[in-house]
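Collaborator request, handled under Task 6.
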Amino acid sequence: MSRTHADIVAELQSRWPEHKVGRSQARVRALCDLLGSPQDACPVILVTGTNGKGSTAAMIDSLLSALGLRVGRFSSPHLVDLTERITIDGRPIADEVFDDLVEQVSPLVRIVDEQAIDGIPMTFFEVMTALAYVAFADAPVNVAVVEVGMGGEWDATNITDAVVAVVAPIDFDHTALLGSTLTEIATEKAGIIKAGSRAVLAAQAPEAARVLLARCAEVGAEPRREGIEFGLIDRVPAIGGQVLRLETAEGPLGDLVLPLFGAHMARNAALAVAAVEAFLGRPLPADVIAEGLESVQAPARLEVVRRSPTVVLDTCHNPHGARATIEGITEAFDFAPLIGVVAMMADKDVSGVLQIFAEAMTTVVTTTIADTKRALSASELGELAGEAFGADRVREAPTMAAAIDEAVRLADEAGAGAGVLIAGSVYAAGEARALLVHADASTAGGSATSERVVWIEEGEHDGT
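Structure tokens returned to the collaborator:
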């Protein structure tokens, strides 16, 4: 009896999960060697950073597609279905195509498993990364846009020499694996910058900036820096998003419609345009930039998924991203009151995120995330929320569905002007989206940012 799509997905997800990282590329390299090195079949743009890398990758994809190229994109984690991680021509790989791919690759995965390199079989993320590279080689695509899973230097995605290495803003997350200082974290992420590549760098804190520019000098990569070679000149909030003016390779370009909310998304758009121009080695035509940005879709990034009352989804899960989310929702909607639905993983900076949410949310409904042992329970999260919000501003709900119902009830009682924000985890946003959004619904949104510095010329990288 043949396996169903659900069986195949379940078997893949039973492997060592992606939050448990085997810091080695040996296993995924061994598999890709057996597969004929699919990671080298087309040019690759790698995107790393702490926040914003997913939305930046989506914008790069959209810009390249507007140029007429066939684009493959690998992202993680997924919101609802595993196949969302591998897209070709802007669409997730079909279930049947994905299943056939897994069946073809599985015998080779078992060979690597049996070798038990570094004492463990292949991890879930390693297998998914190899599947993505095979899918892109088989399509074939003209260019692959690949979001780094974690870090950079040892990440499974970094088995290729990317022609363009994009570094979104770096901040604190996954500190147990990446390091407890920005210098350590940036050192890991700088590993995607290879000899002869072009590095497109978002503005960073001084510690991270020093590391990234030192890496460029070490390997002979050409840096393109936000605030010097490219950047956001101006932005005006608008209905359904914002209108941008960017510094591009050909100079200032205005009247660019971006259907996503928040200043952080505007800066991600500038980063994406610079990345595509670095890939091409020439300026992008103005009409291509306009079409590419206007066509961007970024589900669960300040995405409106319901009206009356308005319910917004976001994937933020660390203080850096939470600050950007709150600034974005305040600017775009100005809800009064703002009711929060929050679910988080236990290994995140939960208190840091809740402190930021408490500044803007009148009431928070804490809940948990189904089907994961990493998530805090509603009561555990509620206790921590009580410290940030005060117990009288905290409600608890056993499931996401119950939490949404409670938040909507509170918003209805508050009357016109009230809104709901569901945030705290990519997995929480995915669970909520599965409950609230139909498969054919349109999407919009954002993710990331906070304080940054501009780059300083001639080796002085500690300015503001």
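The cover message to the collaborator said: "Residues 163 and 197 are 5 Å apart (CA to CA). The chain has a mean pLDDT of 92. Please let us know whether this matches your experimental observations."
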